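Researcher: Next sequence.
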Amino acid sequence: MVRRIPRGRVASYGQVAALAGLAGHARQVGYALHALPEDNEVPWHRVVNAAGRISLRRESSGGALQRALLETEGIVFHAGRIDLQRYGWAPRQRGASPREETPVAARRSPAPAKRATAKTAASRTRGRAYWLVKSEPFKYSWDDLNRDGRTYWDGVRNYTARNNLQAMKAGDWALYYHSNEGKEVVGIAEIVREAYPDPTTDDERWVVVDVVPVAPLTEPVTLATIKGDPALRDMVLVRQSRLSVMPVSAKEFSRVLKLGKTARPR
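Model: Next structure:
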């Protein structure tokens, strides 16, 4: 699918996933492109995140190379972003007249699908549970989740984190934490589909859940802030910082929102 993106156009990870029949699986596309050998002929540089930004580490030479390759194709960056309405790619539909494949802005975007909400969990015997999930922003950021609208949480290969995914229920909320870069809580996500087999592996031990964005934090809450707050000294993030999926108590969840100057979503 990436080979079809023409020179001078870009597509988002989520768009590539959708065109490949894997809607909501933008993270998988990112992992696949990241794993390409150096001598490949796939135009990987024409895939960017949903905000029109390069999703490689700032210190990575790959980010500079990707930008240079795009600029040689006539794509212009403004404040580090590409105008997707100008340079975004949309493949022509089957049966359409042959012509240059049109930019995204030339087509009407489909109405967003209605997402499941916490109200669907009202019949559960237990109340809403709270979690924290980590993602490296250069692979899949909070902005990426917001643009995609929904994704599955894959790649978990730790048994404790896997068990936490299995314990999640539809309607639970999760703090969205940027790891490695930023090291901060930036938003709230909701679990909308409970654990099912991880489609990125044939190993039946691993699972994923589907998540959607609920709300951003008004101000990100850094790991340093969390560690320095007495009310959060027992938070799993402080005691087991390498765990990628972890439970959060209701009091800890509320405290993080307060530190982020964020009202509890309704």
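Model: The chain has two domains: 2-106, 118-259. Confidence is low (pLDDT under 50) at residues 93-125.
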